[in-house]
Specification:
Structural class: mainly alpha
Strand content: under 5%
Radius of gyration: 17 Å
Number of helices: 8
Number of strands: 0
Length: about 160
């Protein structure tokens, strides 16, 4: 994956995580800066990347959809099922990139969506299994491997 493709994927992931409450507005600004450095460019992206941390909370909600549209990316409205599913995939990407541990991924998915999102049900179940890992035959390494496999399945 080229640096531009990676920055595009990161920006898309951060945008969906922001729209589902999993990331802060200043995280989106940092992703916009990284996208510009990697070679992505659009008028709204340049403005977005120029926001201060204090401005981000107020300005990102209005400008992010415009920037994503200019780049041909998808903006997911808050509380949409498609947005929740995209957020699960974005968190899986983060885990596969080493930004989260398998345990953290399963826990965040379970805390945010419980057993209510069919796409994430397996991860929620695996989080339950982490809680009882010492009482059965399954090891921590086996659970981690199962979470990694599920994350890989989700990101395909």
């Amino acid at each position: 994956m080229s640096p531009t493709e990676a920055a595009t994927a990161d920006l898309q992931d951060l945008a969906v995580l922001w729209s589902t409450g999993e990331a802060q507005a200043h995280d989106v600004v940092e992703a916009a800066c990284a996208a510009l450095v990697a070679g992505l460019d659009s008028p709204a992206l340049r403005i977005l990347a120029g926001y201060t941390r204090a401005e981000a909370a107020y300005e990102v909600p209005d400008l992010l959809p415009v920037a994503l549209d200019e780049l041909g990316l998808v903006f997911y409205p808050r509380d949409s099922e498609a947005g929740r599913e995209a957020a699960v995939r974005a968190l899986a990407h983060q885990m596969l990139a080493g930004r989260l541990t398998p345990r953290e991924l399963a826990l965040r998915i379970h805390q945010r969506y419980g057993h209510q999102l069919p796409l994430a049900e397996r991860l929620a179940m695996l989080d339950d299994e982490y809680d009882i890992v010492g009482y059965g035959d399954t090891t921590l390494a086996q659970l981690d491997a199962e979470v990694i496999a599920e994350a890989q399945r989700l990101t395909r």
